[in-house]
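Appendix B: complex inputs.
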Amino acid sequence: GAGVSQSPSNKVTEKGKDVELRCDPISGHTALYWYRQSLGQGLEFLIYFQGNSAPDKSGLPSDRFSAERTGGSVSTLTIQRTQQEDSAVYLCASSGDYYNEQFFGPGTRLTVL
Amino acid sequence: AQSVSQHNHHVILSEAASLELGCNYSYGGTVNLFWYVQYPGQHLQLLLKYFSGDPLVKGIKGFEAEFIKSKFSFNLRKPSVQWSDTAEYFCAVNADNAGNMLTFGGGTRLMVKP
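Resulting structure:
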């Protein structure tokens, strides 16, 4: 497809379990971003990948959160030992030009019981 | 760190009314500015953007925004709203000291009554 895709669209997990969220950016886009959208916190930046450079992890809320981007394309966001406060919609975006117009995916709604 | 404020959290308008949504940011350097919209059940979409040049920018669906540097503002306007404009609107800023990350405002929920 032409847009950013994310999977799964919904994920329900139990507290303490690990989860992996996937993002497929727009083909050819060099930059990939993860954000989190939660009630009361709005949209928060988590992590940013640009080409082969080291990722900007400044937005990750704790060391339970990590992300990788393989081959400069697909990215996986991993949350270890999930907590109820991790419940949110996790959004992925990609951009391909200097002006940083970011295109967003539909998100993954994570619910931690 | 920069921050973005959207002072109107909920706005209710009747069709054909004029719209102005406020957005203020706190950063004195160079910024790129964006308005995104999220229609019910859909993902974030870009409405318009400002990088440089004419401070009055026009976007899709009749929306426009004006960058006023002295006021650190980037308010969104539309002369006549439609029921289909019911959505949540987010202002976002990319500051030149923040890499490429976007800092978002808290969003404004707009409801347009038919």
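The interface with chain A takes residues 32, 34, 36, 42-46, 49, 51, 90, 92, 94, 99-107 of chain B (CB under 8 Å).
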